[in-house]
Amino acid sequence: MIIDIYWIILAIIKIIVTVSTNMIQKYYNFSGNSYPIITAIIAGLFAIFYALIFEDYNEIKNANYPILILFGFFLFIFLLCNYLLLKKFTTSWLF
């Protein structure tokens, strides 16, 4: 029962963060592609701090780096597409 409540809380936090991020992206004007670049760098720094604090170093040594680089590239494409789509359409539900 505790695990179910934990996942529900995480899902609610994810929804709030996603909606807030989309609203910020839509209603604030950013010049060029500075918004996705800066947010990706900040998210990467938070991920590195999390890994250094909570993850086991032996698991980091055994990581498959080509796969990590590939998925990092996919994440970059995803963030850039979301930014460009939100910037293009007048309402966020159209895409």
Offer a concise description of the structure.
The chain has 95 residues and is mostly helical. The protein has helices at residues 2-27, 34-54, 57-61, 65-88. The radius of gyration is 16 Å and the shape is globular.
* Range of helix content: over 70%
Radius of gyration: 16 Å
Q: Indicate the proportion of strand residues.
A: under 5%
Number of helices: 4
As residue ranges, the low-confidence spans are none
Give the tally of β-strands.
Answer: 0
Tally of individual domains? 1
What does this structure look like?
The chain is mainly alpha-helical and 95 residues long. The chain has one domain. 80% of the residues lie in helices and 0% in strands. It has helices at residues 2-27, 34-54, 57-61, 65-88. The mean pLDDT is 78.
